[in-house]
Amino acid sequence: MHRVGIITIIMIVICAGLIQVAALGYVEIAGIKPDILLLVVIFIALSCQQPETIKAAIIAGVIKDMASSSVFGSYMLAFLALGLLLNYNQRRFYRERPLTQMLFGFCSYLFVAIFILGINAIAHRGLGLFYIYLNIAFKGALYTGAVSPMVFFVASKMSRVRLIHAV
């Protein structure tokens, strides 16, 4: 567990939010973009202490809520739940391996997608286009998982958190 300053966390999350909103349109494949904010929350939850995780999840969730058409606050709750779950179990995971990072990106994207779908279903009293949404969520999870090692590397350099164990 590392102690990362709040200024550094805010800077990382805001940079990820700007990239998410402005630049990821250029790398979308079939209308699917990776979720950089989610990957930053995963990185902070696995690398930092609980107060930093809570702050990062709330800030990232609010940024994502402002840029989405979902019920406001749903991404904040989803990121907060995911961040606390990963932070609580962070010692059980070996986050240094790219395959593990990809698996976290994939599974976390699906978790957040199902969480958001549930909140929207409760708010709108119906599931709507459930199968189409899950198909898009699965493709987004694959793409997010594929870019997760690169995001983990950049976030580790920005926060000065080492990802490699000294052998």
List the helices and strands and how they pair.
Blueprint: H1 6-23, H2 36-47, H3 50-67, H4 74-88, H5 98-124, H6 130-159
Describe the structure.
The structure is a single chain. This protein is mainly alpha-helical. The protein has one domain (6-159): Arp2/3 complex 21 kDa subunit ARPC3 (Orthogonal Bundle). It contains six helices and no strands. It has helices at residues 6-23, 36-47, 50-67, 74-88, 98-124, 130-159. The longest helix has 30 residues, at 130-159. The radius of gyration is 15 Å and the shape is globular. The relative contact order is 0.17. The model has no long low-confidence stretch (mean pLDDT 85).
Question: How helix-rich are the residues, as a percent range?
Answer: over 70%
Q: What's the CATH C level?
A: Mainly Alpha
- Main pleated-sheet profile: none
CATH topology: Arp2/3 complex 21 kDa subunit ARPC3
Q: How far is the first residue's CA from the last residue's CA?
A: 18 Å
Average pLDDT over all residues = 85
Kindly give the count of domains.
1
CATH architecture: Orthogonal Bundle
Key words describing this protein structure:
72% helix; Arp2/3 complex 21 kDa subunit ARPC3; 167 residues
Report a brief summary of the structure:
The chain has 167 residues and is mainly α. The chain is built from 6 helices and no strands. The chain has helices spanning 6-23, 36-47, 50-67, 74-88, 98-124, 130-159.
